[in-house]
Design a protein that fits this description.
The chain is an alpha+beta fold. The chain has helices at 20-26, 64-80, 148-152, 154-167, and strands spanning 2-13, 30-31, 40-43, 47-50, 55-61, 89-100, 123-127, 130-134, 139-145. Helix content is 25%, strand content 34%. It is elongated, with a radius of gyration of 20 Å. The model has no long low-confidence stretch (mean pLDDT 94). It folds into two domains: 8-92, TATA-Binding Protein, CATH 3.30.310.10; 101-167, 2-Layer Sandwich (TATA-Binding Protein). It has a nine-stranded antiparallel β-sheet with strand order 2-3-4-5-1-6-9-8-7. A hairpin with a 2-residue loop joins β7 (123-127) and β8 (130-134).
């Protein structure tokens, strides 16, 4: 069984405001269109979304190193553009991971799952604040992971949920 982190969503804040039109002119890779969205997009990867009030989101990171790289890249380029920036505060908001159970799963056995094969090839199971998208191949996508500590116990969590769904009776 393997666990692969597919996406991390991080939010953070610099203790200052930014003129995003100026940032878009002075910082490379910035796309800013205030008519369509209030934030500036910086696609590295991962993607950084910077707002005028100093808040930002990072999406598409696969590791903490990706997050740290994005923050340091942004700090470097903002300082080169004339902004005084210090290390921002940030926190992990959500992770999406894939667990491969290495065995096929009969989705019809999952008693409390939402499974409509005509609409989606996987079954959806909700457990302990997380959503599991279970596929017959044995792959499970887990949404709603709030900390990296939860990743360490994810394999066990997924196995327990699948087993309890297989044995439950209505």
């Amino acid at each position: 069984m393997t666990v692969t982190l597919r996406n991390m969503i991080v939010s953070g804040r610099f203790n200052r405001t930014f003129n995003l039109e100026e940032v878009a002119q002075k910082v490379p890779r910035v796309r800013y269109d205030p008519w369509s969205f209030s934030g500036a997009f910086i696609r590295l990867p991962p993607t950084i979304i910077l707002f005028e009030n100093g808040k930002f989101n990072i999406v598409g990171a696969h590791t903490l190193q990706d997050v740290e790289y994005a923050i340091s890249w942004l700090m470097y380029h903002l300082s080169r553009a004339g902004y005084e920036v210090s290390e921002p505060t940030w926190q992990l908001r959500n992770c999406v991971a894939e667990v491969n159970l290495n065995e096929p799963i009969n989705l019809d056995e999952l008693k409390h799952a939402v499974y409509v094969p005509e609409q989606f090839p996987g079954a959806t199971v909700r457990a302990e604040g997380k959503t599991l998208q279970v596929f017959s191949s044995g792959k499970v996508i887990v949404l709603g992971i709030k900390s990296l500590d939860e990743l360490q116990h994810l394999e066990e969590f997924v196995r327990e949920v699948i087993e309890s769904e297989r044995t439950r009776t209505e």
